[in-house]
Each structure stands twice: as structure tokens, then as C-alpha cells.
Specification:
The complex is a heterodimer of chains A (320) and B (270).
Chain A: H1 25-33, H2 40-60, E1 63-64, E2 72-73, H3 77-83, H4 86-122, H5 126-141, H6 144-154, H7 161-168, H8 185-197, H9 199-209, H10 214-222, H11 227-238, H12 240-255, H13 259-264, H14 276-286, H15 290-319
Antiparallel strand pairs in A: 1-2
Chain B: H1 2-28, H2 32-38, H3 50-59, H4 61-92, H5 98-110, H6 114-126, H7 133-156, H8 161-169, H9 174-185, H10 187-203, H11 206-211, H12 220-229, H13 235-269
Helix pairs in contact in B: 1-13, 3-13, 4-7, 4-10, 5-7, 7-10, 8-9, 10-13, 12-13
Classes of the chains: A mainly alpha (320), B mainly alpha (270).
Family (chain B): Belongs to the binding-protein-dependent transport system permease family.
Pfam family, one (chain B): BPD_transp_1
Subcellular location (chain B): Cell membrane
């Protein structure tokens, strides 16, 4: 805003002029200034709860600190240590698996379920559709922690239903210590995440499908396209915006995986389900390695910030 | 024929999705002895409520429900309020640089809580707010309002300007336009946000766990999560705890089902 405009003739914006003038550049800018007080609560909260802590966290990552006393400035030492720390890399590899389980697999299954529900069931049985959609969505409304309690109990090696069911089916040899064995822990966590996640893409894709012009399907059907071909050449391009939003938001959510890990495995066994989010928590609060924890959290922030930036850029491009 | 097959497959998948809930329901009312002899898949011999009662008393579940309700309720109302004020300036007021401000708020909402936790832990101790529900309310008001600002700014930027101008011509000031025109007309979106903020805050675990150490202040997920994380529960206590965690979520789901599905669609594409 230019200095020349500091005097704000507020009253003039009413009545005396044609309302259309509001749309013109200079008027709009002058108008905008009167709204500045409305930004105060939001900006104050943002500064106190997000901006200041974020900057402090980056600052802490350049120190060695146990949480009490004065932090020792060590420059980039924590980052050097981090990049040669095998646990850190393993936690990222595990995170890739969680992205697969929270973003990629649910998007794919959600797409199949949404099209099946929309194509086959929705037109004739709207109530069945609502019921089915609600069933798939229900795990999404649970606190992740409660989902973790449920599955921790089901997958328990001794009294869990999963092993009991296998024994009941005569597959006693297949019983496992699902969450307690390095071979199966990550896969079990991934399975639980898929269960939690499916409902989200399903609901979003079904909303997106309502927008698609039915004539496109009719034309494709006339051309002799199979159901599979229609899915790939009509549905997917038409709802690509939804697919993109789901993939990105779920990827970011997967990068922040803490609560499910805390409840299901606590990062174990042997670090086989550790994630950067959980690894930073361990350093902050269990090992009193605050500087190291802050460095891990900073790396995570940079990655998520990068993804969010890509998201904003692409979204703006879609809009304009 | 294919139609029947598809409906059948979908129905089976839906039942499988709901199966864990059924298992919890089945076992939450079993006595420990019943569980040991019959296993988790058998029907209970008799309905046994003591497991749930014991667990309720053990974690003081009533207090946890109150804490969760107070925290999630306050955050929902305050965050919608803050979002409306900010989005009014950005979406309708068209404050200069608004695109950047909106982008910063969205980024703020997406930041990992791990990058905020230690400074927040430290700062709340400095100002004597550590281990208070107020601290959690303030923190989540900021986090949810960041998302609310992002969403509402884009909704309000398409708000019909003629309506705002007409009200101004009639002599309403900015404050009156906000409360008498913008808020009533945008109420459908605001109610969606209110519901989402409530449920999201209810479900939060990490920051509340760090911030609320005393039993009297903890929320439902914190109490259940910490107990589960410590591996201190037996089979029936676990199913009782699962049931008590599921019930509020299912209640919200049934009450708000239409708002939720409508809201998800709005939030995704906007």
C-alpha cells in the first residue's frame, strides 16, 4: 500500500458513489485497509503458536541441549550426525511404506469402490449407497488412537482375534506376533492404516463423480469401451483434481504419523516401524536429546513445507 | 447379474470394514473368565458390565469426557470466530497481499506438530500454562483457525459483493455487515467448520499428550493412548477401552453424518 494513501476517507465508500467502483484497483486497496483490525486475532495466534515456536525449533536444532540449563551452540553438528544416522534413514524408509499405505493404496481402492458404488448402486439404490459409504467411512471418524487400541487388541499374539480366527480356520501355522515381530510389524501397521484411510478418498471421489457429465460415459460406451477403459480414460481424467488433493493431503498426513505408531508399536520392534515424527519425539522426551529432536523435526518441516508449496502452486494454476 | 455381484462384493467389503467394531462390541461385555475359555470370537455366556464399569472408574472416564468436550467445544467456537474475522478481511476486505497471507495460514496448518512441540512445551511452562486445558485450547484454536482462514477466505472471495455494498449503502458499518450479512449467509459453511474443528480437536493426540500430564486434565484419546502405549491392559480392559473410545466418535458420526460428507467434499475441492 502506498504512503500517499495513508489518509483513509472511510465514509466515502458509502452511498455517494456507484457501487461498481469498489471493484476498481485503487478503491479496493483503500477499502482493504479498514479491514486490517480483523486480522489481529488470527495473526497474533499464528505468531504465538506457530511462527515463534517454528523459529525457536530451528534455533534449537543448532544446539546440544538436554532441555534444562543453557543450550550449547554446535552449528550444523546435529544435521551432520543426522544424515549419517542409520535410524533416521530407516525411519524415512518406513515412512515411504506408510505413504504407500495411507495415500497410494487407499486412492487406488477408493477409486475402484467409488466408481463401483456410483455406477452400479447409486442410481437404483440411493439408501444402500449411503449405508455402504457410511460403513467405509466410519474408521475415519475414530480418533487414530482408538483405532490403534482396537487393532492392538485384535492383533495381540496371545488373546487377539486375528490369531484366533486363523486357528479357527485350521490355519494355526499362520499365526504371528503381528505387531511384535520385525518381519510383520510394518506390514501390519500398513494394513491398519489402509483400513483407517479408505473412507476418505471414497467420499471425496463420490462427490467428484457427481460432477462428471454422464454423456461422456454414454459416448465411451457407444465406442465399445470396457468398464476398465472408461475408468481410466473418462473417470480418472475427470476427477484428477480430487485424486491429486487426496494423494497430497494423505502423503502429508503420512509424514506426520505419530499417534498410530505410538499406540500400535512404539516404533518397534527394533525400530522396524519407527517414523521421523516418532523418532523426534523419542529424542525430545525420552532421550533428552532436544537439539537432535529439533533437527529431525526441522527436516520433516522442510519436506512437508515443500509438498505444501507444490500443492499451492498447482492449485493456483488450476484456478487461473 | 453383474450388478448383483458388485453389490454383493461391496456389501462383503463393508461388513469386513465394520468387523473390528463388531468384535469390540462382542467382547466388551464378556467377563475375563469368559474371554479366556471362549476366546474373542465366541458369543458371551452372559452380559458382563463390570469390565466397562471398572475401566470407567480406573481412568475416571467421566472427567475425560468433560475435558474432551470442553477443549474440543471451545476450540471449535473460538477457531470459527477467528477464522471468520481473518477471512472477512482477506476474502471480502481484499487486504493487500491476501494471497500470500492465505498461503502462510495454509502452511501453518500443515506444519508437523513435532516442529512446534518443544518450544510450546517450554513456553507454556514459562507462562504457567503448562498442563492446563487453556493451553491446549489456545494451541488448537490457532492450528484450526489457520485451516479455517484458508478455506473461508476462498469461500468469502466469491461472496456476492452487491450484497455487501447494498448493506454499506444502507448505513451498516463493517462490523455490522460481518454479523448481520456475511455470517448469516455463510452459516452453512461455518457450521461445517464448527463440526470439523470439534471432531478434529477431539481426535488430537500428540500435543494434548505432551501438554496434559495430570490425570484431571487429560482428554479421552490421551488417556486411552497412554494406557495402551504402556501395555498395561488385559484383553477385556482393552475391549472395554476400545468401546468407550468408539462410542463418542460413532455418536458424532450419526449426528453429523450429512454435515461431514458435505463438508469433506467442500474442503477437498475448494
Amino acid at each position: 500500500m502506498s504512503v500517499a494513501e495513508t489518509k483513509r476517507p472511510e465514509r466515502r465508500s458509502r452511498g455517494t458513489e456507484r457501487p461498481e467502483s469498489v471493484f476498481q484497483g485503487t478503491r479496493r486497496r483503500r477499502d482493504g485497509r479498514g479491514y486490517l483490525p480483523y486480522l489481529v486475532p488470527g495473526v497474533l495466534l499464528f505468531v504465538a503458536v506457530i511462527a515463534v515456536p517454528l523459529v525457536m525449533n530451528v534455533g534449537i536444532s543448532f544446539t546440544r541441549w538436554q532441555g534444562v540449563g543453557d543450550p550449547d551452540w554446535v552449528g550444523l553438528d546435529q544435521y551432520r550426525k543426522l544424515f549419517s544416522d542409520e535410524t533416521f534413514w530407516i525411519s524415512f524408509r518406513n515412512n515411504a511404506a506408510l505413504i504407500l499405505a495411507m495415500a497410494v493404496v487407499p486412492t487406488f481402492i477408493g477409486l475402484l469402490l467409488a466408481t463401483a458404488l456410483f455406477d452400479v448402486v447409486a442410481k437404483r439404490h440411493p439408501r444402500t449407497t449411503t449405508a455402504l459409504r457410511a460403513a467405509f467411512y466410519l474408521p475415519q471418524v475414530l480418533p487414530a488412537v482408538v483405532a490403534g487400541v482396537v487393532w492392538g487388541w485384535i492383533l495381540h499374539p496371545e488373546y487377539g482375534s486375528a490369531n484366533e480366527l486363523l486357528r479357527f480356520l485350521g490355519l494355526g501355522d499362520w499365526t504371528q506376533n503381528w505387531l511384535g515381530d520385525e518381519k510383520t510389524a510394518l506390514l501390519s501397521v500398513m494394513f491398519v492404516l489402509v483400513w483407517i484411510q479408505i473412507g476418505y478418498p471414497l467420499v471425496i471421489f463420490m462427490a467428484g463423480l457427481q460432477r462428471v457429465d454422464p454423456q461422456l460415459y454414454e459416448a465411451a460406451a457407444l465406442d465399445g469401451a470396457s468398464w476398465w477403459q472408461r475408468l481410466w480414460s473418462v473417470t480418472v481424467p475427470q476427477i484428477r483434481q480430487e485424486i491429486f488433493v487426496v494423494l497430497l493431503t494423505c502423503t502429508i498426513a503420512a509424514l506426520k504419523s505419530f499417534d498410530k505408531i505410538f499406540v500400535l508399536t512404539r516404533g518397534g520392534p527394533g525400530g522396524s516401524t519407527n517414523t521421523p515424527a516418532y523418532f523426534s519425539f523419542q529424542n525430545f522426551f525420552e532421550k533428552a536429546n532436544v537439539g537432535y529432536g529439533a533437527a529431525i523435526a526441522t527436516v520433516l518441516t522442510v519436506i512437508i513445507g515443500g509438498l505444501a508449496f507444490v500443492f499451492l502452486r498447482l492449485q493456483n494454476r488450476e484456478e487461473s | 447379474m453383474t450388478r448383483r455381484l458388485v453389490v454383493g462384493v461391496l456389501a462383503i467389503l463393508a461388513v469386513l470394514t465394520l468387523f473390528p467394531f463388531l468384535l469390540v462390541l462382542l467382547n466388551a461385555f464378556k467377563s475375563p473368565g469368559d474371554y479366556t475359555t471362549g476366546g474373542p470370537l465366541a458369543l458371551p455366556d452372559a452380559l458382563y458390565f463390570q469390565g466397562i464399569v471398572d475401566f470407567w472408574v480406573r481412568v475416571d472416564f467421566g472427567q475425560k469426557l468433560v475435558n474432551s468436550t470442553v477443549i474440543a467445544g471451545s476450540v471449535a467456537v473460538l477457531a470459527v470466530l477467528v477464522s471468520v474475522l481473518t477471512a472477512y478481511a482477506l476474502g471480502i476486505g481484499r487486504v493487500k497481499g491476501r494471497l500470500w497471507i492465505v498461503a502462510v495460514f495454509l502452511l501453518a496448518n500443515l506444519m508437523p506438530q513435532e516442529a512446534l512441540v518443544y518450544p510450546l512445551y517450554f513456553l507454556t511452562k514459562e507462562v504457567d500454562l503448562y498442563d492446563t486445558r487453556l493451553a491446549v485450547i489456545i494451541i488448537f484454536t490457532a492450528i484450526q483457525a489457520a485451516f479455517g482462514t484458508y478455506l473461508l477466505s476462498s469461500v468469502l472471495s466469491t461472496f456476492p459483493r452487491e450484497i455487501v455494498e447494498a448493506a454499506r449503502i444502507d448505513g451498516a458499518n463493517r462490523w455490522q455487515v460481518l454479523w448481520r450479512v456475511v455470517v448469516p449467509i455463510s452459516w452453512p459453511t461455518l457450521s461445517v467448520l464448527l463440526v470439523f474443528f470439534f471432531i478434529w480437536t477431539w481426535n488430537e493426540f500428540f500435543l494434548p499428550m505432551i501438554m496434559l500430564v495430570s490425570n484431571d486434565n487429560q482428554t479421552v484419546p490421551v488417556a486411552l493412548g497412554v494406557l495402551q502405549g504402556q501395555r498395561l491392559m488385559d484383553a477385556t480392559a482393552q475391549s472395554a477401552s476400545a468401546l468407550l473410545g468408539i462410542i463418542p466418535a460413532v455418536v458424532f458420526f450419526l449426528i453429523f453424518q450429512r454435515t461431514l460428507t458435505r463438508g469433506i467434499a467442500v474442503g477437498a475441492v475448494k
